[in-house]
Write a structure and sequence with these properties.
Tyrosyl-Transfer RNA Synthetase; about 400 residues; single chain; 13 strands; 3 domains; globular; 6-stranded mixed β-sheet
């Protein structure tokens, strides 16, 4: 491909490429010298469970790979011991070195669903950061001003509200920048929430006499609630390693207002399909539920065989559209004739995280037994026959006497 053809493919779906003219020049130089670009993506090992929000930037890295460029995954085992303050209003907990290594391996195993692992270089930034002397840290710190650091939104808000900021947090963006120095990165990818850190990398590379990297920020995708950033802590995520049936159920809870965005950023639909989806939604010629089912099959097929995605759709329709029980659900066995508190059953079988959550869902009418809603959070169940407990729309439990 020509440089302009590569450029057109690679900037698609990106929020910003800074600066675009340098990016095109780097691609032209790469073609002329037959030397692939070094494309860097930092991995946060403090959160190793990947979801389709992480997949947005991973798919972009795969596009670079497919065009012959070098993909470098930087596991931040050293920086995780600092704790990235990006987007937070308080100091993050620090991890041990052992935790960061274990989580980094988990990250790579999941990323393998998207990346060509044979062509992926994985490095740990402790390899260079852990060897820096105190004099070298001072030199690094001198390359950036406190005023510039405080320009970052999360720092400025915490400073204005007189919330504590530890000095070590100022070192995080500088340490991430040193990754770019050590690797001589040509391009660094990240979400829009990483823009400040990526720009610091450009500045610090320049201070160390290295040609500055181009930065490419990718959009963040809202979770299945359609409001907050996708996150496991909000339980609004769709995990890359979840079973197809679970993924399908979660994708079907996406609000109609997010259908187009999920086609674009989760299913990676081309412009023609996006335009068709928009037209069908605007004209009302199709039930949005049918579009969501199609979108869900497309997303799941990226990480599982298409047959499994179609089977998940059929299971969803059988259970939720026709009101039938799922073919495969967890089973709990109790001694026949015993009486057990409903809250205890829900909690110990993983249908809820806490007793408080169980009581709340019961009083809200979100729990049913054999299709009948219950509202008594003090209910005791006599285990003398098979029953099916349903919590919300997707959680089922078969209870049988033994």
């Amino acid at each position: 491909m020509t440089a302009k053809e590569q450029f057109k493919i690679l900037i698609e779906r990106a929020v910003e490429v800074i600066p675009e003219d340098e990016f095109l020049a780097k691609i032209e130089k790469s073609i002329a010298t037959k030397k692939p670009l070094k494309v860097k993506l930092g991995c946060d090992p403090s959160r190793p469970d990947l979801h389709i929000g992480h997949a947005v930037v991973l798919h972009k890295l795969r596009e670079f790979q497919d065009l012959g460029h070098e993909a470098i995954l930087v596991v931040g085992d050293f920086t995780a011991m600092i704790g990235d303050p990006s987007g937070t209003n308080s100091t993050r907990p620090q991890l041990t070195f052992e935790q960061t290594r274990e989580n980094g391996l988990t990250y790579f195993e999941q990323a393998a669903k998207i990346l060509d692992t044979a062509k992926t270089r994985i490095v740990y930034n402790s390899e260079w950061l852990g060897k820096m002397s105190f004099a070298e840290v001072i030199r690094l710190s001198a390359s950036y001003t406190v005023a510039r650091i405080l320009e970052r939104d999360d720092f400025s808000k915490r400073f204005a509200s007189e919330q504590p900021i530890s000095v070590h947090e100022f070192l995080y963006p500088l340490a991430q920048a040193m990754d770019s120095v050590a690797l001589k990165a040509d391009v660094e990818l990240g979400g829009t929430d990483q823009k400040f850190n990526l720009l610091v990398g450009r500045d610090v590379q320049r201070e160390y006499g290295i040609e500055p990297q181009v930065i490419m920020t990718m959009p963040l995708i809202e979770g299945t609630d359609g409001e907050r950033k996708m996150s496991k802590s909000y339980d609004n995520y769709v995990g890359l390693t979840q079973a197809p049936v679970e993924m399908f159920g979660r994708l079907m809870s996406v609000p109609d207002s997010m259908i187009v965005k999920y086609y674009q950023l989760a299913a990676f639909a081309d412009s023609a399909l996006l335009e068709e989806v928009r037209r069908k939604l605007d004209s009302g010629e199709i039930n949005p539920m049918d579009l969501k089912k199609d979108m869900a099959v497309r997303v799941i097929s990226l990480y599982h065989p298409r047959e499994a995605a179609i089977s998940a759709r059929e299971e969803f329709e059988r259970v939720f559209s026709k009101g039938e029980e799922p073919e495969d659900m967890p089973t709990a066995k109790y001694n026949a004739g015993t009486k057990i508190w409903i809250v205890e059953i829900l909690r110990e079988n993983g249908l809820v995280k806490t007793g408080g959550e169980a009581r709340r869902l019961i009083t809200q009418g979100a729990v049913s037994i054999d299709g009948e809603k219950i509202d008594d959070d003090k209910l005791e169940i006599s285990i003398d026959k098979r029953i099916v407990i349903k919590v919300g729309k997707r959680r089922f439990l078969e209870v049988i006497p033994r």
